[in-house]
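Final report, section 2: Outcomes. Of the targets proposed, Endolytic murein transglycosylase is the one most frequently requested by collaborating groups, and we therefore present its record in full.
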Amino acid sequence: MLGMDKVTDYPGPGSGSVTITVPEGSGPKAVANELVANRVVADSDTFVKEFLSEGGELSPGSFTFRTEMKNADAVAVLVNKDASRVMYFALSAGLRINESLEAISKGSGIPMQELSALNQAPGQFGVPAKAKNLEGFLAPGEYRFELGTSAKDIIQKLVTTTLDELKAQGVTDPAKQYDTVTIASIVQAEGGQADYGNVAGAIYNRLKPNNVETSGLIQSDATVTYGLGKKSFHLTEEEKADKSNAYNTYANVGLPVGPIGSPGKTAIDAAAKPTQNDYLYWVTINLDTKETKFSKTLAEHNTYVEQYNAWCQANAGRCV
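The predicted structure is given below as tokens.
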């Protein structure tokens, strides 16, 4: 008779609020164990059975549950079948702040005016004092919140995710956090994911005071276009020479005045712990595969720029 009184499912509907994060590549069993550990569901095996019977697929992201839910209700949260009872939105890595706020507004129903006001008062969310807004600190990912969750609580969750990742990488000083997010946002915009570490390494090499090759200039097209308020792969020589653009890393030495988008976890990790290399130049030569070529000298770099130009000629309209 031992174990006959084991609870395999709660009666529901449950109470309170528990947020569970599903990492990329996580399986139903691992999620079930997490749910049991947080008293969301009663038994991992019966939960997995219910999940598989629904034919659902796991998506990475943060999910909000109640404690002591019915297995069927908890499964519905994971497969987003209870969409009418949750606020859902997804933020891609690299989005600029207004793009992120628009996605949050659309998914949550919270007015843009309210979100914009919170964005202009970043200090309340624990970001570095240097931050004039929340650019760079809204963590990409899929999010689900209970209906009625306040705008401030939603924003805080996204910011905390970014700050926790910085701390996990050993970046605890606020000033260093701001610089790391700034570099990570450039890495996110400039390189293919497999090359993030080397792009970060090259940026740090360019910032070294004894570097005479590039004289402390990062020379990132992505920072310039951000400052211009547009998205483009091509810049004029006049735009590159414009020192009044505070994000112009061709004309102004050092980092731009702030992040240029929301970096994902991989880009943050690369900026916190860059690959040690001797590179000073990089160029993505294929915008589809994100293949990136690195070099130590301008002459070598120019040969890769020719490969990029050749790709652009073969793919009309892509490099605008």
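The chain has a mean pLDDT of 91.
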